[in-house]
């Protein structure tokens, strides 16, 4: 039971970790993209369709990444170039992603596709408890952890991370120093879209290897919330993703036991838990102000 709990927690946390890591980079540069859910769905259907058409799950992952980038660049053009409201545009992107993925995926319901294989390390994967927990996952699980570590190191220790934080905290000062604010934000938004697309690919090719309309079930919104929960710090982002994954496993486990509780209430448990934690965290206004990028959601205009 312990092994199943740990393995299921890591699996449930992976799409959140991918999407939230991308959103963390986006918000660090001062851009608020609420279209994560739509980009995840776009990545999920693109990955599933490509994997089904080619018979290769790896091609599906690449297609999902490309779909996420394409949708994120659509958001970037509208918000960063045309200077529209970021909140409204993000919501519109989510609505568009849901509708477009439902349209494209209508012919794939109930059709199987290749799934991402589990990695097997001889001698290590067969160890009791630690084997399946640490060495029995697919490549995207390890990629999510590696990307989070790389982002944490980049933000904290590199010149690029310093520039990103400067753009997010004072885009006018960064522009005065000669940094291309809009170009940096374009790159960050594209990176966030790529990771949201990978999160969608994980949903349709690994976590639940099938296509179903709205299969992300609000995980994009949870990923955005986790960035706030973590106070824009990568370590707490990992904690939040694992916390949500643990709640999701517990809700499914309780349903399997046949406990006399409405299934809809148990299914909502992870989301209710996330909301409760966010409410508790948001009460510490000083902590939020200390780590929140000062320019978050504010447009930048040269000379404006």
UniProtKB/TrEMBL annotation:
<feature type="transmembrane region" description="Helical">
    <location>
        <begin position="88"/>
        <end position="109"/>
    </location>
</feature>
<keyword id="KW-1003">Cell membrane</keyword>
<dbReference type="GO" id="GO:0022857">
    <property type="term" value="F:transmembrane transporter activity"/>
</dbReference>
<keyword id="KW-0812">Transmembrane</keyword>
<dbReference type="Pfam" id="PF02653">
    <property type="entry name" value="BPD_transp_2"/>
</dbReference>
<feature type="transmembrane region" description="Helical">
    <location>
        <begin position="260"/>
        <end position="281"/>
    </location>
</feature>
<keyword id="KW-1133">Transmembrane helix</keyword>
<feature type="transmembrane region" description="Helical">
    <location>
        <begin position="43"/>
        <end position="76"/>
    </location>
</feature>
<keyword id="KW-0472">Membrane</keyword>
<feature type="transmembrane region" description="Helical">
    <location>
        <begin position="129"/>
        <end position="155"/>
    </location>
</feature>
<protein>
    <submittedName>
        <fullName>ABC transporter permease</fullName>
    </submittedName>
</protein>
<dbReference type="GO" id="GO:0005886">
    <property type="term" value="C:plasma membrane"/>
</dbReference>
<dbReference type="InterPro" id="IPR001851">
    <property type="entry name" value="ABC_transp_permease"/>
</dbReference>
<feature type="transmembrane region" description="Helical">
    <location>
        <begin position="235"/>
        <end position="254"/>
    </location>
</feature>
